[in-house]
Specification:
By secondary structure, the chain is of the alpha/beta class. The protein has 12 helices and 9 strands. Helix 3 packs parallel to helix 5. Bound molecules: ligand C2E and magnesium ion (2 copies).
Length: 250
């Protein structure tokens, strides 16, 4: 069914705003592209229910490429409407190990005409750790295309901190399990504080995922976290709905 969904255009990309917390605080800096499946009988199916199957069957390769292309086209379309946004796209470990991953990403950037500096590829720690040498050369080649690289779900995977130094990453996204536990003096607040200073000391930007309460936001601002994303601001929305949200939140 997923194979057919891809061919018959049943997949959708929703976009969730990522807001700046310092400088021009509150401004929408970028959006994260998140795939959904508009299933003919089951309704809107979340990625948690089909991304693993897509990875196991290899369908994640064409699916991920479709999401990337869709997201790049959307950035170009927004630009034409005077809306300046960057986009983050999730990339699976299966995609990264494809021998032609770099040329495929380059082809999408070419076809859509997007400014590569407006595109970030999100990868989890476990993807980066898979085969450090092989991954390093792929990441360097992707960076040479001009895109940004972000470490997703940071703090949850099995990883070595040395790769942050060796790999050409631009930002880390603190996993929402830590953000969700933020309260004054809590363990999770201490972890987030450490991750914010770790990333800044390494010259990386820090994004907090899953911000749901004003208290979490307040603590993140105090800690100097650069960006935040979460239901407190906005859930992932279809492109038209996001347009209305942006109009209402200048
Ligand atoms: P992720 O990349 O870490 O994306 C963030 C997830 O957190 C999204 O779930 C988003 O809807 C959710 N989220 C955002 N703010 C909040 C909040 O305040 N509270 C809570 N509880 N959740 C929040 P979603 O869209 O269901 O995606 C789940 C995961 O599926 C993503 O996690 C990513 O790993 C994967 N995924 C989504 N789209 C793609 C894709 O195009 N390609 C690949 N390979 N994976 C994807
Ligand atoms: Mg992500
Ligand atoms: Mg994440």
């Amino acid at each position: 069914q997923l194979r057919r969904a891809l061919m018959e255009g049943q997949l959708r990309v929703h976009y969730q705003p990522i807001l700046g917390l310092s400088g021009t605080a509150g401004e929408v800096d970028s959006v994260e592209a998140l795939v959904r499946w508009q299933h003919p009988t089951r309704g809107l199916v979340p990625p948690s229910e089909f991304v693993t199957i897509a990875e196991e069957t290899g369908l994640i390769v064409p699916l991920g490429e479709w999401v990337l292309e869709e997201a790049c086209r959307q950035v170009v379309a927004w630009e034409a409407q005077g809306i300046r946004l960057s986009v983050s796209v999730n990339v699976s470990g299966v995609q990264i190990t494809q021998p032609d991953v770099v040329s495929r990403v380059a082809a999408v950037l070419d076809r859509t005409g997007v400014d590569p500096a407006r595109v970030a590829l999100e990868m989890t720690e476990s993807v980066l750790m898979r085969d450090a040498e092989e991954t390093l050369s792929v990441l360097r080649a992707l960076k040479d295309l001009g895109v940004r690289l972000h470490v997703d779900d940071f703090g949850t995977g099995y990883s070595s901190l040395s790769y942050l130094k060796r790999f050409p990453v631009d930002a880390v996204k603190v996993d929402r399990s830590f953000v969700g536990g933020m309260a004054p003096g809590s363990f999770d607040t201490a972890v987030v504080a450490a991750l914010v200073s770790l990333s800044h000391n390494l010259g990386l930007q820090c994004v907090a995922e899953g911000v749901e309460t004003a208290e979490q936001l307040e603590l993140l601002v105090q800690l100097g976290c650069d960006y935040a994303q979460g239901y407190l601001f906005c859930e992932p929305l279809a492109e038209e709905a996001l347009g209305s949200w942006l109009d209402a939140h200048p």
